[in-house]
Amino acid sequence: MDAGSEGLTSAQRRALAQIWAVLPQARLVGGVVRDLLMGRSVADVDMATPETPEQVQDTLTAAGIKVVPTGLSHGTVTAVIASAPYEITTLRRDMETDGRHAVVCWTTDWWEDAARRDFTINAMSRSRDGTLHDYFGGQADLAQGLVRFVGDAGTRIEEDALRILRFFRFQGRYGTGKPDAEAMRAITQRVGLIMRLSVERVWSELQRILTGPNAATLVAMMAEAGVLSVILPQGFALGRFIHLVQAGAPADAVLRLAALVEGSKLDVAQHLKLSRADTAFLLAVSEGPVPETDATDAALRRFLADEPARPLIGRTWLRQATLLAHAEARQTKTARPDARAFEALRKRLEGMPRPVFPVAGRDIVAAGHAPGPAVGQILARVRNWWMAEGCTASREACLDRLRHGFE
């Protein structure tokens, strides 16, 4: 399979040759097909086949290929070749759907399997010989930059409400121009179905949207369709988010979430069930002082002595975006923040080593002070002096100050 396969690595080609040698009816499906059509490098390789999961597992094992039963109830096994995974899923037909999960049965009908997929550009498959099987016009839609549901958009959404968020993610990556009118209409009429989903699934998709291509445009579309109001009932600041993205802030999902949400960040973190690390960063980047763009090196060292650079830098992005949003609301250019000054500030913070206070409680005791609560108080006084001096005083200087300045 050489023609149109430039996006596959040599290792991927060898692995596919091994799989096709024992599963000749299997086809490439999903993202790998889109990537190959668009001439992009292929990250993940997914396949589908008419054989049952048990048959696939037995056949691959007999051929000496490692198999992991990653999702037998959904028809999926994973072949592991040269440490890389290749998911192989049996063709399926939906028996029941409830907006969150589907009960499936196996089929040997490729059209039937394609008909249950979400978007036309996700319903194509490609045979071993390079033949493209396109039952719903996915290739034409991909060329036109059109993200369109397979069949009736409302029905596809009612089968799985997560497809609402997937629509925006796919629109960001593959769509050009205005979104499909039928899709947007169906989404607007069914946004309430999102509430049936687990927040873990919602956050998983949302963070990919926030950090993916065309994030500002997509989030504005989501607000227009009523999606954001359901996902973030605490409220949202669309203008601040758009300005954050347009200013060039890094594609950090939590930083962008901090710019988007209004109200209590802790409430948002609990609502979306963020991890401890993400919750901590969301709170840190949203609260606390922000260095001024003309801050001295000593002032920046004091900031860094109290906390890492990441939340400090994040706060500078949020302040810049907030000032831009305010300037836009006032329709004046005089109040717009100096982007170059903010960028220079961030570079200084990134390049500045974090100061470490060189004295500990044991040094206070060694200097002759009795162990107890007073040690912490004395240590705090020494540290305050060290901070006031710009966080540059050495251990020896701090100990000398301890001996002579706090008697």
Features:
Beta Polymerase, domain 2; elongated; PolyA_RNA-bd; 7-stranded mixed sheet; NT_sf; 407 residues; magnesium; 10% strand; 21 helices; single chain; alpha+beta; cca-adding enzyme, domain 2
The count of helical stretches stands at 21
- CATH C-level of the largest domain: Alpha Beta
Provide the low-confidence segments as ranges.
Answer: none
Bin the strand percentage: 5-15%
The whole-number mean of residue pLDDT values reads 93
User: Helical residue percent?
Assistant: 40-55%
- Cα-based radius of gyration, to the nearest Å: 28 Å
- Derived structural class: alpha+beta
Would you tell me which CATH topology of the largest domain applies?
Beta Polymerase, domain 2
Gap between N and C termini: 82 Å
* Biggest sheet features: 7 strands, mixed
Oligomer: single chain
Can you offer a commentary on this structure?
- Its EC number is 2.7.7.19.
- Residues 180-234 form the tRNA nucleotidyltransferase/poly(A) polymerase RNA and SrmB- binding domain.
- The protein has 407 residues and is of the alpha+beta class.
- The chain has four domains: 1-144, Beta Polymerase, domain 2 (2-Layer Sandwich), CATH 3.30.460.10; 145-229, cca-adding enzyme, domain 2; 232-355, Methane Monooxygenase Hydroxylase, Chain G, domain 1 (Up-down Bundle), CATH 1.20.58; 361-405, no CATH class.
- It has 21 helices and nine strands.
- The chain has helices at 10-22, 31-38, 53-62, 110-115, 138-144, 153-159, 162-174, 181-189, 199-211, 215-224, 227-231, 238-246, 253-260, 265-272, 276-286, 297-306, 309-330, 339-351, 361-366, 373-388, 395-405; strands at 27-29, 45-49, 66-71, 76-81, 84-90, 92-97, 102-106, 125-126, 132-133.
- The chain has a seven-stranded mixed sheet with strand order 3-4-5-2-1-8-9.
- A hairpin with a 5-residue loop joins strand 8 (125-126) and strand 9 (132-133).
- The longest helix has 22 residues, at 309-330.
- The radius of gyration is 28 Å and the shape is elongated.
- The model has no long low-confidence stretch (mean pLDDT 93).
